[in-house]
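Tokens help. One example:
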Amino acid sequence: MRVITAFLILVCTMIASSAQAAYRLQPGDTIQVSVWQEPKLDRQLVVAPDGKVAMPLVGHISAGGRSAQQVEKAIKAKLQTQYQSDLDVTVSLVAQPPEDEDEKIDPTIFVMGEVNKPGEFAIKKRITLLQALAMGGGLSAFAAQRRIQVHRKVDGEDTIFQFDYRAFEHGRDVAGNIALRPGDVIVVPERGLFE
């Protein structure tokens, strides 16, 4: 029984070490650096946003996109030039950054302006602009049906899509009924005096 238990522990250790060898460090990851001959150099380092870590006697080295073993070799190579004896350096992943809180929030869209029930709506599946307007209770009597807008952030820039509801009703602006994305804001302006 002891042989089987020892074998299982060995297999689990090998699987864990191979998974860590395949993992590429990212900004925000925390690594543990241990130098057996110089315990004063043992420390935990956080990978900076530029992908680098800084360590005494080593300086700044690139860690982002590299495995812990690759960072270990780079640190050992830098330190070895300052020591005559062979150094035993180990680098291991200690922690990953916590998940972004925004990713845990349900995807939502926003419908505002001249609709009967403006507000924020959670979406569970892909929906179209018309479906979102229906979620908002439909267009009010004062809606500018020809000037409906969808505001969307694309690469940090606000992009606006125009939609003509009246043209859609008559089969002309079918492509304007676009599929929405989480975070889209639908704005239904108030109709002008001569609209």
